[in-house]
Design brief:
This protein has 447 residues and is α/β, with parallel strands linked by helices. It is 35% helix and 24% strand. The structure holds flavin-adenine dinucleotide (FAD). Flavin-adenine dinucleotide (FAD) binds next to helix 4, strand 2, helix 9 and helix 12.
């Protein structure tokens, strides 16, 4: 009924108004007076003026740029931003104006280059991608913060320091983190995020140079996947006898996703570096004491303790609690379920790529190679989604190349069931890996 009143209120002066030299008496409010002034100046009838305003309003709404928010500057979003930069001439014709990137740090770490840095072959700079510079070059607003919540009903992201940030389209590329014990301790270091790992390991990388740390330290790496093994071999290469290193592996073999030949070779490498491997062993609980941590191990029938200064956790990848609580449909490990276009299966305005996404029909291991390949597709699909165009499909390959660093400027290669472990080839494989990783990092860093 309010609407009717409104109509009456407007219709009355509407009929009485005649534009020209004849006077009329509109309602006394300022707005109508202004409208009348406009009508007189433009020399158009009042009803036409209203129609014109209506069309202008519709045009404004249609032309208003959609608000796209990217959370996380991982491998996928970095590649997406770079692809936008390459197409920036075309981008001007696309309504892609209001974009925000939320990232805790201006720089993100490329995992492929991390083992070489830990082994001492290059510094941290060589592993870093300045994702903030990439975003800013495109006019993307950068918010240096961490998302801690997602309110799907209100379409906003809750950030730790910046409060709520609204979105119309959202893209997640926040990686994954290993499962770690609930207790907070500086002696429990997760393998990811990589930036945190490198900061936490900084004092250990300076062993021997440091006056505050004793000469020899002990470390346990929990998790016998590729990440754990590569980090173990790299740290041992750098620190030698200064580091007593143990690797705790839940299964009866290390790197279970790799071929038998790679597993055998990696086991021999760990042995030759005096890294003690606990097979078929799980960490039941962790106690912190003044000197370090005590890991309570469970090896089938018997339990034992392992004391060390610090423990590195490279256990099964998992997603943050705020994603699980968000209402987005996820898999049983809490990763966002997406279709083959990387769009959430439950929310059509939300996309996810990299480790945080699981493609419902073709799930794949959490590996950087998929995150990188999805980067181009997510960049393409976000633009097409803003323009209401059809989306491109990501074709997930079933086999992929793994170049595995052995720490001392050697590497081995694995592709499905095939592997190259021949000794004379190992330095060449290491150079090949370095070339690929270096060109990826330098390609993403703007000069
Ligand atoms: C030691 C090691 C070596 C590896 N080597 C290889 C390899 O050689 N090849 C390979 O294929 N895979 C490798 N992996 C796996 C690879 O690291 C991951 O699969 C890859 O990093 C996933 O990329 P991503 O784009 O999903 O996210 P990431 O590259 O992990 O980036 C996620 C980003 O999101 C940010 N972020 C996280 N949470 C939030 C939040 N709440 N708000 C805002 N931002 C957030 C993080 O700071 C980070 O910058 C390795 C892993 C490890 C541990």
């Amino acid at each position: 009924m309010n609407l009717r009143k409104l109509q009456v209120k407007f219709l009355v002066p509407f009929h009485r108004i005649t534009i020209g030299n004849k006077a009329y008496k509109p309602h006394g409010d300022l707005l109508l007076d202004l409208e009348v002034v406009f009508c007189s100046v433009l020399k158009i009838r009042y009803d036409r003026f209203l129609f014109l305003m209506f069309i202008l309003l519709i045009l404004l709404i249609v032309m208003m740029p959609s608000k796209l928010v990217l959370i996380g500057g991982g491998h996928s979003h970095s590649v997406a931003l770079l692809s936008w930069l390459h197409q920036s001439a075309t981008l001007r014709h696309c309504p892609i104006a209001d974009i925000t990137l939320i990232t805790p740090n201006a720089q993100t770490i490329y995992s492929g280059s991390v083992p070489g840095h830990l082994a001492g072959w290059w510094n941290q700079e060589a592993c870093a991608v300045n994702v903030a510079a990439l975003a800013e070059a495109l006019g993307v607003k950068v918010v240096l913060d961490e998302a801690i919540g997602l309110d799907l009903a209100q379409q906003c992201i809750i950030c730790r320091n910046h409060g709520a940030i609204g979105f119309e389209i959202l893209s997640l590329d926040i990686g994954s983190t290993p499962q770690i014990p609930a207790m907070v301790s500086q002696r429990i270091i997760p393998m990811k995020p990589m930036g945190l790992l490198l900061n936490s390991l900084e004092p250990y990388l300076k062993l021997g140079l440091s006056e505050t740390l004793p000469e020899t330290r002990s470390m346990a790496i929990v998790g016998g996947g590729l990440g754990g093994v590569e980090v173990a071999l790299s740290l041992k290469e750098r620190l030698g006898n200064q580091l007593n290193l143990s690797l705790i592996c839940r299964s009866q073999t290390i790197a279970p996703s790799q071929s038998k030949a790679i597993q055998t070779l990696l086991t021999q490498e760990l042995k030759s570096q005096s890294i003690r491997v606990y097979f078929n062993t799980a960490v039941n609980s962790v106690q912190e004491n003044t000197n370090g941590v005590n890991l309570i191990l469970n090896s089938g029938e018997y339990s034992s303790n392992l004391s060390c200064d610090v423990s590195l956790w490279a256990t099964q990848a998992t997603s943050p609690q705020w994603i699980r609580d968000s209402g987005l449909r996820t898999d049983d490990r809490g990763f966002v379920l997406v279709d083959s276009t990387l769009r959430s299966v439950s929310h059509s305005n939300i996309f996810a790529s990299g480790d945080i996404a699981t493609i419902q029909t073709t799930p794949r291991p959490k590996a950087g190679v998929f995150a990188v390949r999805q980067g181009t597709i997510i960049g393409h699909n976000l633009r097409r989604s803003l323009a209401n165009q059809s989306l491109q499909v990501f074709k997930a390959q079933s086999r992929y190349l793994n170049l595995i660093s052995l720490g001392d400027r050697r590497a081995v290669a694995n592709y499905g069931e095939f592997s190259i472990t021949t000794k004379p080839i190992q330095p060449l494989l290491w150079h090949w890996k370095k070339t690929i990783d270096d060109s990826f990092v330098s390609g993403l860093n703007l000069r």
